[in-house]
Write a structure and sequence with these properties.
About 45% of the residues lie in helices and about 15% in strands. It is an alpha/beta fold. The structure holds ligand TLP.
């Protein structure tokens, strides 16, 4: 059901709904969600709250909105949000945290996207009129720009101890949290437990066309609900979309292991060619980064061979495996890489 003849490795956001998912969309009961009356959205929110071990959840149109309503609900203008300098909130959300919540981000140089408890502790601002108020620490798991890296759970616990010791709030951009679940066997609620708010995307590896879900306490989700409306994300009969998300959570989680296996093959191929941007031990889930002399030019050469991959820096490209990338396409991609990158 992909609508394209390309081998599209630009992102796991490029997938098309399967025929079965389309059937679930077709059958979905709907209502007006601004009135709280959409049964499919209500069922999705209950399911994700349960999955994450939280009191409540909120369906929103995108991962960006999910992160941003969370930050808005957890902060007041003039606050500071501590994050890794490669995280999505800092790099790819159009400056939303400053524009929409009036907060400043305090990016720290994480190694492979991972912040240590010591780094976070050293970044806390003393109570003093000169400083912004340290209010939130946000982590990303799996970490996109680090290459789909799974955050070590013990590091999360150590950061959590610092966060709570200082009376801060803790947010998780878990856009690809289910990839971490499948890669480690650690259940979602265990990953989610230390956090006040957790954002999960349905439209990445899970293969739904639209939507993310923010989970947290009833109090925070009630606030986030108001900010979703303020940000223009109050939807009506969006149960059609939520039904795809429900379907994805029921049928597309275990299969993420296939995406991880294919990413390993790409990683091994690139390592053999001396072109893997990082060591193979950092290929944890569904992403690989390759290093070349000129990434935009190499992206064009790949495209001429039928393979799409985005440059993420002047010398790096990202390849992301997903639901619409099969073993046949994997073989073709490996051949193309060997042809273009042979030493
Ligand atoms: N990531 C996209 C691009 O925006 C870079 C991608 O192709 O990977 N958190 C993380 C960790 C993400 O990777 C993304 C999307 C988001 C949040 C935002 O999700 P959307 O695109 O639904 O706003």
């Amino acid at each position: 059901m992909t609508q394209t003849h390309w081998i599209d490795l630009r992102s796991d956001t490029v997938t098309a709904p399967t025929p079965e998912m389309r059937e679930a969309i077709f059958q979905a009961p709907v209502g007006d969600d601004v009135y709280g009356e959409d049964p499919s959205i209500n069922a999705l929110e209950r399911k994700v709250a349960e999955l994450m071990g939280k009191e409540a959840a909120l369906y929103v149109p995108s991962g960006t909105m999910s992160n941003q309503v969370a930050l808005k609900a957890l902060t007041v203008p003039g606050d500071e949000v501590i994050c890794d300098y490669n995280c999505h909130v800092f790099n790819y959300e159009s400056g939303a945290a400053s524009a929409l919540s009036g907060v400043q981000l305090h990016p720290l140089p994480g190694e492979h996207g991972i912040l240590t408890a010591e780094q976070v502790s050293n970044a806390l601002r003393p109570a003093n009129d000169h400083f912004a108020t340290s209010r939130v620490v946000t982590l990303e798991n799996t970490h996109n720009r680090a290459g789909g890296v799974v955050y070590p759970l013990e590091v999360i616990h150590a950061v959590h101890a610092v966060v709570k010791g200082a009376g801060l709030k803790f947010h998780l951009d878990g856009a690809r949290l289910m990839n971490a679940v499948v890669a480690t066997g650690i259940p979602a609620r265990e990953w989610a437990a230390p956090f006040d708010t957790v954002s999960l995307c349905l439209s990445k590896g899970l293969g739904a066309p639209v939507g993310s879900v923010l989970s947290g306490s009833k109090e925070i989700i009630t606030k986030a609900h108001r900010f979703r409306k303020m940000f223009g994300g109050g939807m009506r009969q969006a149960g059609l979309l939520a039904a795809a998300g429900l379907y994805a959570l029921e049928h597309h989680v275990e299969r993420l292991a296939e995406d991880h296996r294919r990413a390993q093959v790409l990683g091994e191929t690139l390592a053999e060619l001396g072109r893997l941007a990082d060591d193979l031990e950092w290929v944890h889930t569904n992403m690989v980064f390759l290093k070349v002399d000129n990434a935009p030019e190499f992206s064009d050469r790949l495209k001429a061979e039928g393979v799409l991959a985005n440059a993420t820096s002047p010398v790096k490209l990202r390849m992301v495996t997903h639901l619409n990338f099969d073993d046949n396409q994997l073989d073709q991609t490996v051949s193309v890489l060997k042809k273009l990158l042979k030493r």
